[in-house]
Fold these 3 entries.
Entry 1:
Amino acid sequence: MQPRSLFVPIEYILSIGGKHIRPALTLIACNIFSEAVDNAIKPALGLEVFHNFTLLHDDLMDQADKRRNRPTVHKKWNNNTAILSGDAMVIAAYRLISETPEPHLKKVLDLFSQTAMEICCGQQYDMDFEQRNDVREDEYIEMIRLKTAVLMACCLKTGAIVGGAREKDADRLYRFGINIGLAFQLQDDLLDVYGDSATFGKNIGGDILCDKKTFLLINALRLANPSQKAAIERFNSSNSFEPLDKITTYTEIYNALNIKEITLKKIDCYYQLAMTELESLEAEPASLTELNKFAKMLTSRET
């Protein structure tokens, strides 16, 4: 398609890998209730295109250098390219989702539009929190619910709708997705500090350098003694520091306060809530095998 300068960056971000979790969840959810999984392929593709759009613009806002161990779009091209190619991806996502079979089209489009707006709200909260040092844990959980979890929930409910699920089962899968999405994002927070850059696909400590109010930092500020709080404040009040010094200082404080263990406990809490929703689903247990595997994988991943 022309102009190539608009579409090559889209091809680039869609070709650099990723786990493809969201389209897989859509197809798995559909298959729980129907053998006609092909009906869910176009909306599943649309949701994956939209997800990658959010990553493209998120990287731009964070000025991130790497995504999946490759240069981000705004680094490989420029900021304007990232903005416009991202806009084109939203349109492409809507076009794909609009190919949902007619009996389910309105429900799926309404759910997607609601989800897209919620993700924008979550992103705004995330940016607002960068200017605050008093973010509460409940505020943070609501932010990641909007920014991350609702899209996983949308994918699952979309698949259920296309598969002809009853409303209460579609809603159960939605709540399953919310809880797994929260656990997924908390695991992401953890990997940003304790992961391996080679497997994680992003630079370690990126959230720390961007002053992201993650679950780890919020709890560290809550539990820190005066000297630990002062150490964090020194980095917040000045831009003249070595990035590695900031990452090392924060990590040492997290270690001293057992923040990793606190985060792992919270991840398990949301995992258990997700399992409760899955167990209440009126479906054959064998049809839920793949979702059980996904839940375990998402909450114990290293990438």
Entry 2:
Amino acid sequence: MTGPTTDPIAGDEELTPAELEAGRLLFAQECRFIAGAVGLDHMPSGGLPEVAFAGRSNVGKSSLVNALTNRKTLARTSNTPGRTQQINLFDLGGRLVLADLPGYGYAKVSKAQSAAWSRFITDYLRGRPELKRCLVLVDSRHGLKPTDIQVMDLLDESAVNYQVVLTKADKQTGKGLAAVKGSVAEAIAKRVAAHPDIAVTSADKGTGIPELRAVLARLAQPA
């Protein structure tokens, strides 16, 4: 089969075998930790295209980064929501930077801490010229929450291209997954900065991982 293909579960974009292979090759490259930034003054400016991973605490950001790069411990995972308190940056083969952002929406952190994270992330999203796309991760079991809407509002206002990625698809039923995907599609339909394709993934089962790699490879610096 040589023509474009789509997977109704993994995503709606047409991807050619060549694009899937380009994604596989990119994410097979060395991926190294380059910085853990707690403020904009700590952010490196290497000039490489950057993709950010944002989402509610415990939505599976670190697990998705690990699955994409086919590593188990590249990004730390934790069962304690709110543990990640910095932006962790990874250089992928000298072609793309992956930015794992602090989780949002966890009520048990202090108000001062939550406000500080919010300011930092807001400044990052608005003032990072290297940022090519922000992946907004949403738990497929729960759908969009008010905090997700707030982040999408910020991204729209900041003219930052973003794409919704449903996580933990293996923990949802087929009908439930379709319903959540449909509700998200309706919610983003008129948003100016939203990418129309919704990726559906499972870090545990590998669902949607090859397709998401291919999509991100389009944003990387050419080999």
Entry 3:
Amino acid sequence: MDIFDFEYLKHQLNFSGLFGSDNSLGNLFLLKDRYKIELERHTSYLLRKFDYSDSIRGYTFPIFFNEDASPNEDSVLRDYFLHITENQKKSNISLCLFTENQKKQFDTFITNNFPDYKIEWGTNPADGDYIYLQSDLENLPGKKLQKKKNHISKFHRTFANESFVYFNKSNFSTKIYTDFLMVADNWINEQTGKNSDSETHIYQSERTSIESALNHISLFDFSGGLLYVEETPVAITLASKISDEVLDIHFEKCLSTEAAFGGYAVINNEFIKHCSNFKYINREEDLGIEGLRKAKLSYKPEIILDKYYGRLIKD
């Protein structure tokens, strides 16, 4: 699909009630190459297929179009089922990134309509999204988030001349573009200096996604922020909406010197202050990285959205 297809989808897809980062139109665009995402428009829904890892491979639950305010979900699921099973030579069909509710809905549909099929489900904790109340990330209430307040205070005490710039498509500028990529490049240089050469392509792929996001900020309504110390950019964040209720954080990077004094807590908190129109903030998955898991848990998520993969098998 090209950029014109994404322009069409932006106005046609109904994301209401969806929380998962895989539903974000921004993510579908940014990750289409890395995750080998195939998108196919049908009459009432968008068909998505991923080919990334053992647990993120196969067809996802359909996203409905806005054209029908109250779609007949059984009719959509029937069309979806007939399409993914059509001309299949394999004995089973892979499914992925189903939420608990979607899994139950599809199980019920299969049982009621195609009893000669069954689904074997599994889950990978590394794929689950961490979702927070916007008000919690902004206000950091109570003892449970006191450490985050301490990190922010430490940063402000350490760096006297620091500032934050919020941006979206209305105030995006060449300076923001240049400063944002400067942090991305410096962060990648730090990472590649302490990791193996085999991981370099991962960082370069992420850098490509960051630049692509900045080049299409208006189409996908990306918003973000930059943190400066002595007028030098040291941290960045970038996000786009999943629905009117849920904002998805795509990137958050901080250079090591500032990170050691609470830079991540500061860039997170400063950006969230500008996102009060959203109820929830999705900070995506932990990728099975222990340090990342601890960091995401330390913010006390309101929801951990488990994702399920499965095999659709004909008896």
